[in-house]
Amino acid sequence: MTIIGSSLTASAAGAALANGYAASALDIDDGYRPLKGHPGAVVFPGILAAAEQVGANGEAFLTALVAAYEVAMRAGHLLHTFYGFYHGTGSWGPIGAAAGAARLLGCTPEQIWHAMGVGEFHACMTPEMRSVDHPSMLKDGIGWGAMVGLASAELAARGFTGIPSLFDTTDGANRRLDDLGHEWLIMRLYFKPHACCRWAQPAVEGACVAARQLGVAYADIACVRVHTFEAALHLRNAAPRSTEEAQFSLPWPVACALIDGAVGPEQVLESALADPDRRALAARVEMLHDPDSEAAFPDRALAWVEVETVDGRCTRSGLLAAHGDPDAPLTDAERTEKYHRLVTPVF
Questions:
Q1: How many other CB atoms sit within 10 Å of the CB of residue 156?
Q2: What is the pLDDT of residues 216-239, one digit of tens each?
Q3: Alpha helices (H) along the chain
Q4: For residue 171, what pLDDT is reported?
Q5: pLDDT at residue number 293
Q6: What is the average pLDDT score of the chain?
Q7: Contact, 79 vs 113, CB < 8 A?
Q8: How far apart are the C-alpha atoms of 127 and 89, rounded to whole Å?
Q9: 225 - beta bridge partners?
Q10: Segments in the chain below pLDDT 50
Q11: What is the pLDDT of residue 157?
C-alpha cells in the first residue's frame, strides 16, 4: 500500500500508521471544535489503505470517508461524556475509521458492528493535556489510531469478534444516531491556515491585526499581550527546541507571524528554531486569562491581543476567532493556496 510522498510501500496497516503520522506531523490538519480533535488525520489514512487494498473507485472511497467522519465524531461525543479528562482523537477516531474501512472491505453489517467494537477496545486513551504540556510526536494518538481503525476492520472481515460499541451501550447513543445521514458534522470542520495548535491561532490573527493598526515592523514591538482561554495558556513555551514544541507554543507562532507573515512548515521545522529575531520576539509575548474567551471555549477558540511599541504606543485587536472556522471559512482560493504550498515541495 502507498505511503504518501514516498516510494516506499507497506502493508495496509503499516501504510495507515505511516500516513496517519504524516497527516498530523505539521499540525495543519482539519479539526472539529466541540471535541478539540482532528478526525481527518485518523480516518483518511485508514480509508485510503482499505480503498487501495480492494481497488475501490472514487465514489466508494468518498462514501466510506464521509461515513468514517460522521461515525468518528459521534463516537467522540459519547466518549467525552464517559471520562473526567480530555482525551484526544486517537481514542474515538479509530471507531469511525473501522466503520468506513469495514464498509470498503465488503463486511456485513454484523462484521462492521464488530469492527467498531474492536476499534474502540484497541484505541489509545490519550491523556491530551499531558501531551500539550509535554509536546512529542504522539500527536493525539493519531497515527496509532489510523492503524487501529484499519486493523480492526481487517480483523472483523476475517471473523474476529468485538464488544458492543459505544453506540450500543450508552443512554445517549440513540440521540447521536438519530440524525445520522441527515445532519452532517463534517460540514462543521475547521481548516487551519497555520502549522500550529489551533488554540494559538486566534492569537496569531489578533497580533497581526494589532500590528497592522499601528503600522509597525516587528523590531518596533516592545510587548505582545495575548488574552485568551485557560487551555491556551498551557502553550507557554517561548523557546522551543523541537518542531513539536514550536507547534504547541503560542508565543512562537505569534512571533513568526509578525516577522515572516506566515506560520508554515518553514517556521516550525527545527532549522528555524535558533533564529535570534524570532526567539527574542517570542520572549516578549505575554499570556493572560480572558473570561469572555473562557466562556466560549470549546465551542469557539477566541483571543484578543494588545501590541505595545518601543515608543509607548499601544493598540488592541477585537475578540477574534481563528480564521478557517465554520463561521469564518477559508475561501476556495485560500484552500487551493494551502494545498499547493504544502504539496508542491513534496511532489
A1: 28
A2: 999 999 999 999 999 999 999 999
A3: 12-25, 39-54, 58-80, 93-104, 109-122, 128-133, 142-157, 166-169, 173-178, 201-214, 243-247, 251-260, 265-268, 276-282, 291-296, 332-343
A4: 63
A5: 97
A6: 94
A7: no
A8: 10
A9: 286, 306
A10: none
A11: 98
Are residues 46 and 97 in contact, defined by beta-carbon separation less than 8 angstroms? yes
How many Cα atoms occupy the beta-carbon half-sphere of 10 within 13 Å? 17
7 in a domain, yes or no?
Answer: no
Phi, psi of 31 (to 5 degrees): -155, 165
Which grid coordinates belong to 310?
Answer: 518601543
- Is 88 within the bounds of a domain? yes
**6, 44 Cβ separation under 8 angstroms:** no
Pair type for strands 190-191 and 221-228 = unpaired
- Looking at the fold, whether 217 and 309 belong to one and the same domain comes out as yes
Residue 6, in any domain of the structure: no
Domain enclosing residue 259, as ranges = 198-343
CA separation for the pair 137, 24 (Å, rounded): 9
Q: Evaluate the omega torsion of the peptide bond into residue 109 and state whether it is cis, within 30 degrees of 0.
A: no
What's the predicted TM-score (pTM) here? 0.93
Q: What is the pLDDT of residue 175?
A: 63
Task: State residue 87's pLDDT score.
Answer: 85
> Among residues 188, 212, 228, which one ends one of the domains?
188
Answer for the pair 288, 227: CB distance below 8 angstroms, yes or no.
yes
Query: At 38, which CATH number?
Result: 1.10.4100.10
Residues 24 and 126 in one domain: yes
The structural domain count of the chain equals 2
Instruction: Identify the DSSP state of 249.
Output: -
